[in-house]
Amino acid sequence: MKLKTSVPPYGTPLLVAMEAMMLFVLTSCGAGTSPTTQVVANLPVPSMVQNTVPVTVDAYSDTSNNVFIPNRIYTSVTVCTPAVYPVGQNPIGGPPPAPTCQTINNILVDTGSVGLRLLDNGVSPLPVVTDGSNHPLQECVQFADFTYVWGPVVRGTVQMAGESAAQVPLGFETADTGIPIQIIATQNDLSIGSLWGGAISLSAVPSDCLSSPPSGGLPTAANTLETLGANGILGVGVFLQDCGLACASTPPPKQYYYCPSGLCSVASVPQDLQLWNPVAAFAYDNNGLLLSLPQLPPANGSAGMTGSLIFGIGTQANNALGEASILPVDAYGNFPEVTLNYTPINAAYPTVYLNYLSPQNGSYIDSGTPSIYFSDAQSLGPTVPNCQDYPGLYCPMDLTYFTANVYGTDKTHTQFGWNILSADTLLNSENCMNGNEPIPCSVFNDLGGGSGIDSSPDYVDFGVPFFLGKNVFVGFAGTALLDPEQQVFNYTNGYWAF
Amino acid sequence: MRNLWSILLFLLLGVAPGWAALGQYASSIDLDQRILRCERRELARQGYTVHELTSPDGLVVREFVSPAGRVFGITWQAPQMPNLQQMVGDDNMAELERALSSRTHSHSGAPLIVRTDKLVFVSGGHMRSFHGYACVPNLVPANVSVGVMHETQN
Predict the structure, then answer these.
(1) What is d(CA A186, CA A75) in angstroms, rounded to the nearest whole number?
(2) Contact A373/B124, CB-based, under 8 Å?
(3) Who has the most CB within 10 Å: A163, A394, B51, B101?
(4) Which of A14-18, A105-109, B36-40, B136-140 is least confident?
(5) Is 50 exceeded by the pLDDT of residue A15?
(6) A237 and B97: CB-CB below 8 Å?
(7) B-chain residues within 8 Å CB-CB of A368?
(8) Distances from the Cα of A488 to the Cα of A8, A42, A315, A483, angstroms
């Protein structure tokens, strides 16, 4: 299915998002009338807010620690202290201080996660979400790469371009109380200043939320610039919250904790206290986003490039879907099927046709990963991934071309291709220039890595090389679009379009 | 009170030997089932057996058992990264740590892939959808491909 630019038949109501699988409540705020509520699908709502922020694509490089991560998409985020106390979160009485704002740069744009997470280093205090007894709500998230983050949930107003997320949009939240964001604790046990509540003591990460106790060496904390490779993560995947209904139920999964007397126990946390997708909490242009990055010539790296992060889908002239194919995802944010073709350059290998089928393990698009990852020992050699210097990445002898068909849950599919070159060659060469000085490049469109160690299709992770040269839309869970015949299409789990 | 019992159970079982499944005899799956409070089903396959454990919080673990009764492979899918020490075992976690000791530990978001003589380990996915597998190559039956661990089970 292809949809033209959606033209909503409604005025300019304030959009109030709800959890997926529901219709959406729009609160009219026309001048001179009291707010009324109507239930309609969450269709694009025209907006005139400045909705574009620049992004840079660059490497995170730390030569003293031998860290080099190419293909990182960074942006800046402004976070302000909220103007209003939430109910039950006013331990010192009186009105809250006047809002103060701070802008933090080098924030990783990550469609593989949800929520804004900021390193505590350099971030001015923000009010901590507590249980009412001054025990901070803390969150533990381990990533698949065996790094983890741990730290308190705080409240802040998140501003990007002309957009502002001043409260979570569940419909019954107090205005201007900020949205939940996470402060990544630099140390496991420290006291942080809480703007509203005085000093609050944090606890060490509980071991039951990790793949193994951190004392064993794995997983490792991503709680410094060196280990996170960024000052924070802007999680803008398809979900509205980072956990959702599961963490609001009983028993909840091991993600949110209260730690009275230093003894942490898992907490059941309502969705309005979970980390929110900041873009979904914007007052306008909150139904998705568009990441627009330039292309690189084949086999050429770049010392860095700029692109645009544009908020909203079909809400303004600059975020129309146009001819993009819309691919709905499943409840896990994954594509049900990806097929992959490789046409051999030399005859030593047969033509390869791989079929990556969920629900075993779904394939996905993730701007937070630096390569395109897939399992393929047939076209790229029997012992891949085979790079010497960069374990997990592919180092084929020659440039190798792949074509993929990605399927949405409605069987819509679209095709695109990419090249793979030797990661050792690409990353060890000084093919870019800094003035007259040759330096290693930072951005590559032909980096590939393994998602498994054998030829059996497992899943594909379309990382940053996928985004180069494309307009890639992320449609949030629970949004809807109109086709040219004014038919409504609901995307319960969200969608990708490109 | 329920939490207290969980903590006690965790403390009691957490230090017990035979905690792991991968590389152990299939009887250790009983322990996994109790710890994870899982539903369990067995699937007979050509040359091996699959024990599938499903826990209420969305964790699906499949343990692949050889005719000799040893768990040669394990796969997982979960909304959060699961307790892998419990499933993969102390020895295999130590092998994983050894293999990763020479790598830098920075957040790249990328899938993690480790292959040594003793262990194959793959971890991937994203928030709300993590998955991976581990196997002990020496324990994989001669006529079985590691690829069986990717096959969609019915």
Answers:
(1) 21
(2) yes
(3) A394
(4) A14-18
(5) no
(6) no
(7) 109, 126
(8) 10, 10, 16, 7
The SS3 assignment for B63 reads strand
Determine whether the interchain pair B112/A144 forms a contact, defined as Cβ–Cβ distance below 8 Å: yes
% chain A with pLDDT above 70: 81
Cβ within 8 Å of A, B 110-149: 110-113, 115, 120, 122-133, 145-147, 149
pLDDT at A45: 95
Range A112-122 average pLDDT: 93
Residue pair B109/A145 in contact (Cβ under 8 Å)? The answer is yes
Which pLDDT score is estimated for B20?
Answer: 43
The two tokens of residue B94 are 């130590």
Q: What is the ipTM of this complex?
A: 0.88
Determine the distance in angstroms separating the CA of B67 from the nearest CA of chain A, rounded to an integer: 23
Contact B127 A112 (CB under 8 A): yes
CA A403, CA A406: separation in Å to the nearest integer?
Answer: 10
pLDDT in tens, A63-95: 888 889 999 999 999 999 999 888 777 666 678
Q: Do A212 and B93 touch (CB under 8 A)?
A: yes
- Name the closest residue on chain A to residue B113, using Cα atoms: A392
Chain B CB contacts of A112 under 8 Å are 109, 126-127
Q: Which residues of A touch B140 (CB under 8 A)?
A: none
Q: Inspect the interface and report whether the beta carbons of A459 and B131 lie closer than 8 Å.
A: yes
- Point out the residue among A145, A251, A454 whose CB comes nearest to the CB of B109: A145
Would you call B6 helix, strand, or coil by DSSP? helix
d(CA A336, CA A357): 6
Please identify among residues 65-94 of chain B the ones whose CB lies closer than 8 Å to any CB of chain A.
Answer: 77, 79-85, 93-94
What's the pLDDT tens digit per position in A275-310? 999 999 999 999 999 999 999 876 779 999 999 999
> What was the pLDDT predicted at B119?
93
pLDDT of residue A10: 31
- Provide, as residue numbers in chain B, all residues whose Cβ is less than 8 Å from the Cβ of A65: 104
Q: Is A376 exposed, middle or buried (0-12, 13-18, 19+ CB in 10 A)?
A: buried
Strand order in the sheet with A413-420: A352-357, A337-342, A400-407, A413-420
Instruction: State how far the Cα of A120 lies from the Cα of A141, in Å rounded to an integer.
Output: 16
Average pLDDT value for chain A:
85
Best of A61, A72, A141, A143 to substitute, by most chain B Cβ atoms within 10 angstroms, is: A143
- Say which DSSP state A175 is in: T
With a cut of 80, say whether residue B45 has pLDDT above it.
yes
Answer yes or no: is pLDDT of A8 > 50.
no
Q: How far apart, in whole angstroms, are the C-alpha atoms of residue B59 and residue B130?
A: 10
* Contact by Cβ (8 Å): A296, A465: no
Quote the minimal CA–CA distance from B40 to chain A in Å: 17
- In this prediction the pTM is 0.89
CA distance A207 to A213: 5
Angle (CA) A172 A42 A75, round 5°: 85
List phi, psi (to 5°) of A189: -140, 105
Q: Name the closest residue on chain A to residue B85, using Cα atoms.
A: A212
Quick check: A7 pLDDT over 60? Answer: no
Tokens of A149: 């983050």
Is the pLDDT at A192 greater than 90? The verdict is: no
Size of chain A, expressed as the number of residues it contains: 498
